[in-house]
Design a protein that fits this description.
alpha/beta, 2 domains, globular, six-stranded mixed sheet
Amino acid sequence: MDLLRLIIGVVGMIYYWMTMGIRILVSGLLPFDSGKTTVARILIEGLRERGVSIGVSKPIAGHSLWYQHGSISNIARENMLVGEDAVVLRDSAGSKDPLPMINPLDIGTLPPDPEQFISSLSVYYDHVGTTIRSAIISRISKCNGDKVSYKHLVISDNLRVLNRDLRASFNRLLNYIKGDVEEVAFGAFERIVSDAVKHAERCLETLYSMHENLLIESFNDASAPTVNSLNVDLVVVAAPGKVFVYEGDLYRRAFYVTSSIVHSSPFGAWSTVADLVKLIKRYHALDMPPLWDADRYGVFRERLVDLVLGYSDLL
């Protein structure tokens, strides 16, 4: 088995050096806690150990400022809204690309005060049920070549429905953010986010042009964070205890089949990973052990990297 992995790895490296590189999309089977970032980090670190440098992208990110405490330390350190996933990707890859280019659209959420909705809990559930509806602040980036600019928006309607302590804590958090911070109503924010996805596409195009090898991490269980994110060789789907690998072309075609039925919006009825994978056959699957099982974890990482580098010979 060790000899087989060595052969696959060598063949993969030969393929890599003979081609223009590799593009990978990492998606999740579940809306939350699929393990996308963990799998992405494993791949990035494993590839770098083999001498393969790789760029990274998290076109769209959403994270809770209520319980994802790493986001707070990131904001204080980077002086901008940024979640844990984008920072992990950047640091794992040793990337020098600007964070606003790696992660052009970022949304921080906070839960509304349920006491204000006690007579209409269905409205409260709507608020807490989606990233957009519970958004309290967003960072939106624009890429122009290798230059990137960004601004922060605070969603005033959602700010008003926070409890008093949360509102005070959020106002203190704003002190860490440098640059202009603009307040907008929720309706305006929805329209701005639609345009922001287009800007995220342009940032991704820039990263494609800068890196022969690129790993893109998706958003929640969306089949892809943007349409351009589908221009990949491989799609790695993470699930608790399992990793599925799909050929990029088959995955992309399944996306367009499902997108002829659903609306093309990553925050609306955009097709999910589950919509796609039930239509196509995966060409490999790996059991993923818990991170605390160091021996099995090491074997899993080597097998996954071997698979990515030698994927053309396994089809």
